[in-house]
Amino acid sequence: MTYNPDNIFAKILRAEIPNNTVYENDHVLVFDDITPQAAVHCLIIPKGAYTDQADFSARASDAEIIAFERAIATVVDIKGIGNDGYRAVCNTKENGRQEVPHYHMHILGGEKLPAMITG
Ligand code: 5GP
User: Fold this and answer.
1) Which ligand 1 atom lies nearest to the CA of residue 35?
2) How far is the CA of 18 from the centre of ligand 1 (A)?
3) What kind of architecture, by CATH, is found in domain 8-109?
4) Looking at 27, 102, 104, 106, which residue is catalytic?
5) Contact (Cβ atoms closer than 8 angstroms) between residue 28 and residue 46
6) The whole model's pTM is what?
7) Mean pLDDT for each consecutive 10-residue tract of the chain (119 residues)?
8) 37-58: b or e for each residue (b if 16 or more CB lie within 10 Å)?
9) How many Å is the maximal CA-CA distance in the chain?
10) Nearest Cα to 32, choosing from 78, 92, 73?
11) Which of 15, 48, 58, 77 makes a 20 to 30 Å CA pair with 102?
12) How many angstroms separate the alpha carbon of residue 26 from the centre of ligand 1?
């Protein structure tokens, strides 16, 4: 898949549309999902142009990968969901029902979540 710079998260990274930022560093941006599926629903995205998880895993630098993984702990801490738990989801391509073609991880929590696959 070729990276499309017109995707909505690329526009968020270019500050062309607003977001509710939870955390940011040189390599990642974390913000609240616009349509939350749980009491806590954040999206972690790399600042680099990666289409999906496998693309990021294959091509990102060590520094980018470390920053992304560390951002998980940071957002979990900021949102206070570490003790009770949460779910991390990376929808990928068509079968995974990925809607936005810029790699992202959903962090869902703040309440007891439904079963992972319901339909
Ligand atoms: P996907 O289905 O690609 O894994 O998830 C994309 C997510 O992006 C969805 O949960 C959707 O609500 C969220 N989203 C789509 N457009 C926007 C936006 O403009 N701002 C924010 N904060 N989230 C968005």
Assistant:
1) 12
2) 13
3) 2-Layer Sandwich (3.30)
4) 104
5) yes
6) 0.97
7) 95 98 98 98 98 98 98 98 98 97 98 87
8) ebebbbbbbbbbbbbbbebbee
9) 39
10) 78
11) 77
12) 21
